[in-house]
Every structure is written in C-alpha cells, then in structure tokens.
Amino acid sequence: MNQSWQPSASIETLRKRAALLHQIRVFFAQRKVLEVETPALSSHTITDPYLEAMHTLHTQVGAFTSSKLYLQTSPEYAMKRLLAAGSGDIFQLCKAFRDDEVGRIHNPEFTILEWYRIGFSLQHLIDEVGSLLMATLKVEAVNQSSYSVLFERHLAFNPLEVDLPSLFEICAKLGLQDYVGSLRANLADDENTHASVLLKDSILQVLFSTHIESLIGIDYPTVVVDFPASQASLATLHENGRTANRFEVYYKGIELANGFDELTDAQSQHLRFAQDNQKRSVLGLSIKPIDMHFMAALFSGLPQCAGVALGVDRLLMLALQKNTIEEVMSFSQRNC
Amino acid sequence: MANYSTNEFKAGLKIMMDGEPCNILENEYVKPGKGQAFNRTKIRKLVSGKTLEKTWRSGETVEAADVMDTDLAYLYTDGEFWHFMNNETFEQIAADQKAVGDNVKWLVENDVCTLTLFNGSPIVVTPPNFVEIEIVETDPGLKGDTAGTGGKPATLSTGAVVRVPLFVQKGEVVKVDTRSGEYASRAQK
After folding, report:
1. Average pLDDT, chain A
2. CATH number (domain holding residue A113)
3. Which of residues 156-175 of A touch B (CB under 8 A)?
4. What is the pLDDT of residues B60-75, one digit of tens each?
5. Each residue of B159-180: pLDDT tens digit?
6. What percent of chain B clears pLDDT 70, i.e. is strictly above it?
7. What pLDDT is recorded for position A114?
8. Mutation choice for A interface testing from B16, B42, B55 by most A CBs within 10 A
9. Where N6-(3,6-diaminohexanoyl)-5-hydroxylysine occurs, residue numbers (chain B) (predicted)?
10. Confidence of residue A193 (pLDDT cuts 50, 70, 90)
C-alpha cells in the first residue's frame, strides 16, 4: 500500500516539537517579551541578492486585476514596524517561505523564531541566544569566534584584507577553480563595481562552508561575529567600517541563527536596498521594489535594538539528533 | 546528449566529469543567504574508481553519462576477455581486464554479476556480495579447534586468498563476502 501520505516526523517527535514551542514561549514570557503575529503575506518583499520570495495573487470578487502578494521570507520588516510603533520587546514564532530551498536542512516552508530587544547591545543579545540554546539543546556552553580569526586559523588568510586575485589562487589550490569559473560566468555584467563584491562574498561563503563550518560548533554551538561589512545586510557597521555588527550561530555543521545590531538609519538602509538591487541586476535577477511601509517606519524612528532569527526546525533537529529537517516536520515539501 | 541541472543531483546519478563517467555518491544543497547557493557532492569516477569532492554553483548544468547497470551471468574467460550472458535474452557481452580488475578473483561460473556499461561497453564488473568457491590449498588445521582463533590462509580455485578458520579443509566450498574479502561460512551443502 502507498505510504506517501504518512508524516515525515514520528508522532513522538511531534510531541517533542510541541514541547519545544512551549519552552520557547515560556522563555520569553519570563523575560517579559511580547508575542506578536504579523501577516505571512506582504505587498512588498526583500531585495536580497541571494534570497527569493514566493508569491501568490489576491483577487477580489468582480475585480479585473489581481494584486501580487509575497510570502514573507522572515517577519523582519513587519516586526520592525511594530517596534517603530512603540511595541517594546517582541518575539514571533511563525512560518517563513523561501523559494528554491529543498535539501537535508532546507524546506521552502519552515518555522522561524524571531525576536527584538530594545536597548540591547549585540553582545547582550548573543548572551540571550546562548541562554536559549543551552536550555533547548542541553549544552553547557556556547563559544564565540570572529570571522577573521576563523579564516586565519583554518585557511591562513585574512578575509577582510584578501584581494580577488589572491582568492582565485587560494580556490585553485583547494580544487575550487571550476566553481569560481562558473560563478564568474554567471555574472550578467562583470564590469560592474558590484561584481567583484559579489564574487568575493560568494567565494568567502563557499570557503567558510567547506573549510570552516565542519570544524567549528562541534561540541558546543559557536557564535561567529564580525562579518565583513559587505555582508552587513540590515546590521550596523562597526566603527572600523570594515566589519558588520552581525552574528551567526553554528552547531554541528548547521547554521542556526542570524542576528544584527539593527540598522536604524533610514538613509543608510535605503542606500543598502538600492545596492542590493544593483547586485541583483549584475546577477541577472529582477529588481524588487523597496518596501515603502518599512522605509516610512524607519524614517519615523526605529529605537536602537538588536534582533535575531533562529530556525526552529533546525533547532529541533539538533536537539533530537535527527539527520534531516523533514524528520522534525509533520509534512515536508516532498508530500505536503 | 542530455544534461542534468544541479537541482536534479542525487545519489546514484551518473554524470560526465573530465571526460569520465562518474557516479554521485552524496549531494548536499547549501543556501547560506550571504553568497550564491551551491551543491557539495562526493563523486566516484567509474573508470579509475577514485572518489573526490566537488562544489558546484547551484543552477549549473552538467552532461549526463550514458551509464547503466545490467545483471549478467559469468560464463568463461578466453584469457583476454571475460564473457557474460543475459539469462533472458541470451545476449553476450565481453569485459576486458580493466573492467574486471581485482574482481577477477571472485568470478564464479553462472554467478550473476552487475556490469556497468558506458556507451554500451562494460567499465566495471561487480560480483555478487557473496560467492561460494572451493578451497584448493590450505594447511591442515589442528584437530579439535573450533571457530575463531585467528584462522589460516586458504587459496581458492579462483586464485583468491582468504583467511578461514582452522577447521576448514582443502576441498571444502566456502562462502566469502566479496566486499570485504572475508570468509563468511562453510557453503550449505
């Protein structure tokens, strides 16, 4: 008999999943962080060059046209609008959607935990993430390392100072020359000033994934800090101008969380969105309109805060020592 | 020739790389969000048998290898080629020394082996997991010895040398695991 209707997680795992969600809610209730819900659908989406949103159409009865609505890739913009409106500390447990993401640790629809703490420094938030991980993963400690130190330790070069020709040489020695060739061939406009930044970030990322990730976060989760400024996303820059106030958490080869000291300056944010779109065009991707509701909220004033997003499915995978994300989901993309 | 995109990558897919047919052993899709998505693969080159790791940009395409596995019974060797037959169609295929390789020592007449064909020609011959072969040479064991005290070497009729328990004697047929080259048991009569 066909068994493809069956859930990919066992009922026992689903009980543990419910317990984890409860544990997370208790964690934030004790810290007086307000649980919020924001819409999964939005008229606008992100401009990231490396993330694609899914979308759907909304049609009113009798209407001649449909409006396009994007499924959120994370609840970040809507939550920041609540922060700008005076919500205070907030957290959300919700579904997020990312196109083209299927694999051992990827599912196009997944559960995200995102929270924002007003007046927190980045280190203060890292410590809070550590507390949550120690409680949920039953680990005694969390390590911390800087992005540059990890590259110097495992690959013997400084990622902030290295130039492209040296990076190409390093890749050739590591047998990645075909990969780099393919990256270069894929640039729609390799004369563009953004092209070299895109190439460098993609190469650093692949080196990080193939030569560093498996060597960190083995016994304890590792928090990586001080990413290059070009990977700042929505984080502020360090006063040195070269690194971003961003952190990521790695455990057993899996990226688990991504946090920022949130950029509150509307002008700088607008410039980053514009740069993102220029990068998208270099990659031959469509330009995404900038979310004006989000921009208006920033112009009205976002309080200084630190925020982080954490993959709940991955957290459960690691807590239960499961090998694939679908083992902790009731139904994955395979039979949803 | 057909092409595969990286999103079709999975264990068992046969692709061409450096002019050689290869088998994908493992594939992992990585989408870090800070750089382009990529696929990390572990690949076995089917002719040389070498395994290697390779990183692909997601969305890249690669030529498919015209490779198929077929189950054929081993017939005989003429010294230059090893001849196999499809038990249903009676079609015969000859494999050369390179394709047979070290597995020559596990070839038993009428055993069904897996032949990997590339463009119709055999490149790898894989014997069954277990084969039964007669011992043609081994020292007489001590009387009263039972299983597992290190054993002794025994030469089989195909030329293979395996360690067998001391109580197993010349002329007996033994069952051997071809993947490890280890003695499994005496053959059932």
Report:
1. 94
2. 3.30.930.10
3. 175
4. 999 999 888 899 999 9
5. 999 999 988 899 999 999 998 9
6. 94
7. 98
8. B55
9. 34
10. confident
Q: Which domain holds residue A266?
A: 11-142+220-335
CATH number assigned to the domain covering B3-63: 2.30.30.30
What pTM did the predictor assign?
0.81
Q: A8 phi and psi, to 5 degrees?
A: -85, -15
pLDDT of A295 reads 97
Could you report how far apart the first and last alpha carbons of chain B are, in Å? 50
Which residues in chain B touch residue A101, judged by CB atoms under 8 angstroms apart?
A: 29, 31
**B17: closest CA of chain A, how far (Å):** 11
Residue with tokens 């990919």: A8
**Chain B interface includes A102 (CB < 8 A):** yes
Classify A105 as helix, strand or coil: coil
Upper half-sphere CA count for residue B14 (Cβ side, 13 Å): 16
**Interface touch A206/B38, C-beta < 8 Å:** yes
A301 pLDDT band, cuts 50/70/90, is very high
Could you give the CA distance from residue A35 to residue A90 in angstroms, rounded to a whole number? 6
Nearest CA in chain A to B26: A104
B52 burial type by CB count under 10 A (0-12 exposed, 13-18 middle, 19+ buried): middle
Q: Closest approach of chain B CAs to the CA of A64, in angstroms?
A: 36
Mean pLDDT to the nearest integer, B29-57: 88
Percent of chain A with pLDDT over 90: 85
- Domain B130-186 belongs to what topology? OB fold (Dihydrolipoamide Acetyltransferase, E2P) (2.40.50)
**Between A and B, how many CB-CB pairs are < 8 A?**
68
pLDDT for res B1: 65
Instruction: Inform me whether the pLDDT recorded for B143 exceeds 80.
Output: no
- Best of A107, A171, A182, A197 to mutate (most B CBs within 10 Å, chain B): A182
CA count, 13 A, side-chain hemisphere, A100: 17
Contact residues on chain B for A183, CB-CB shorter than 8 A: 36, 57
- Side by side, the strands of the sheet bearing A41-42 are A41-42, A67-71, A55-58
Q: Which CATH class is domain B67-126?
A: mainly beta
The number of distinct structural domains making up chain A is 1
